[in-house]
Design brief:
Strand order of the largest sheet: 2-1-3
Largest sheet: 3 strands, mixed
Strand content: under 5%
Mean pLDDT: 87
Distance between the termini: 55 Å
Number of strands: 3
Order of helices and strands: EHHHEHHHEHHHHHH
Radius of gyration: 21 Å
Low-confidence stretches: none
Helix content: over 70%
Number of helices: 12
C-alpha cells in the first residue's frame, strides 16, 4: 500500500441502524461542548475582573477543548451517517496530530494551573510580581509551541512510513495504530513517541502532583480561613486533573496492552473518554465552582434571551 491511499475505519462497519442513535448522541454531546466552552470563554473575555492568570488558563482549557474536539466530532458524525469510512493518508495523519496536540496541551495547561496555585499559596505577597501578564504569555506560548512541535514531528515521522495495511480498528486516526500498520522499521517512531509522551504528559503530571503535595503541606501550617480559601480554588483543579489522568490512562492502556480483553463497545468508550468527558466536565466544574464566572455566565444567558 502506498502512502497516498486511504485508511479504513473498521469500527463503523456493520453497525446497522444503531448508527443513528450514536449520531444523535454524538451531535448532542458536540453541541454541548461548543456551547459550554464558548460560554466560559465569553465570560472571561467580557469580564475585566476575570483577566487574571487563573481565569486566563481556564479559558485556555476551553479553547483547547474546542480545538481537539473539532478534529474528532465532525469526522465521527460524518462516518456515522455514510457507508464509506475512508480517510486519506494525509487527513488521517493531520487528525492524529490535532488530537494528540489537544491531549498534550491539556496536560501543559493543567501544569501551569498547578504552578499558578502553588505561587499564589506559597508566595501570596510576591504573586503579582511573579505571575505577570508577560510571564503568563511566555509560559503559555512555550508550552503550546513545544507540544505542537513535538506532535508535529511525530506526525511527519509517521507520514514517511511505508504501510503494509490500511485497516484501523478505531473510530479516529490513532497514532499508535498507524505505526503498527507499517512494515518499515519503526524504532525511531517508537523512541520519539516515548520522548513526546514523557515530556508532554508524564513530566507535567509529575510536576502537578508535586505542586499539590507542596500546597497541602503549606496549608497544614496556615490558619483555617486561609486553608479554606486555598482548598476552594484547588479542589476544582484537582477534580479536572483526576478526570483527565484517568481518561488518559484508559486511552494509553487500551492502545498498548493487547492482553486486555474487554467488550468492543466498552473499550471504544473508554478510549474516547479523554475526547468527550474533559471538554464537558471542565466548563461545568469551573462554571459552577467559581462565583465570578458563574455570575457572568448567568448575565450572558439573560442578555441572549
Amino acid at each position: 500500500m502506498e502512502n497516498g491511499t486511504y485508511f479504513y475505519l473498521m469500527l463503523f462497519e456493520n453497525i446497522g441502524y444503531i448508527r443513528y442513535a450514536f449520531f444523535g448522541s454524538g451531535f448532542i454531546i458536540y453541541c454541548a461542548i461548543i456551547f459550554l466552552n464558548a460560554l466560559i470563554i465569553l465570560a472571561i473575555v467580557l469580564e475585566r475582573t476575570l483577566h487574571q492568570p487563573m481565569y486566563i488558563l481556564i479559558s485556555c482549557l476551553a479553547i483547547n477543548s474546542l480545538f481537539g474536539t473539532a478534529a474528532f466530532f465532525p469526522r465521527l458524525l460524518t462516518d456515522l451517517l455514510f457507508d464509506t469510512h475512508l480517510v486519506s493518508h494525509a487527513a488521517c495523519i493531520l487528525q492524529a496530530i490535532v488530537i494528540y496536540s489537544y491531549a498534550s496541551n491539556e496536560s501543559i495547561i493543567l501544569m501551569l494551573m498547578a504552578f499558578d496555585r502553588y505561587v499564589a499559596i506559597s508566595k501570596p505577597l510576591q504573586y503579582n510580581n511573579i505571575m505577570t501578564p508577560t510571564m503568563l504569555s511566555v509560559l503559555i506560548s512555550i508550552g503550546w509551541i513545544y507540544t505542537m512541535l513535538c506532535v508535529g514531528i511525530a506526525g511527519i515521522l509517521n507520514a514517511r512510513l511505508t504501510m503494509c495495511g490500511n485497516k484501523l480498528w478505531k473510530v479516529y486516526c490513532h497514532n499508535f495504530e498507524i505505526v503498527k500498520l507499517s512494515c518499515a522499521n519503526t524504532i525511531i517512531n517508537n523512541v520519539f513517541g516515548f520522548f513526546v509522551l514523557t515530556t508532554t504528559l508524564i513530566m507535567p503530571l509529575t510536576f502537578i502532583l508535586y505542586s499539590y503535595v507542596k500546597i497541602l503541606i503549606i496549608c497544614r501550617k496556615t490558619s483555617l480561613d486561609f486553608r479554606r480559601k486555598a482548598y476552594q480554588t484547588c479542589i476544582p483543579h484537582i477534580v479536572i486533573l483526576l478526570n483527565f489522568s484517568v481518561a488518559l490512562f484508559c486511552e494509553i492502556t487500551l492502545s498498548r496492552v493487547a492482553t486486555l480483553e474487554l467488550p468492543l463497545v466498552l473499550s471504544t468508550i473508554l478510549s474516547l473518554e479523554f475526547l468527550i468527558v474533559p471538554p464537558i466536565l471542565d466548563p461545568l466544574v469551573y462554571g459552577l465552582n467559581f462565583p465570578e464566572i458563574r455570575k457572568k455566565i448567568i448575565w450572558i444567558v439573560k442578555v441572549c434571551k
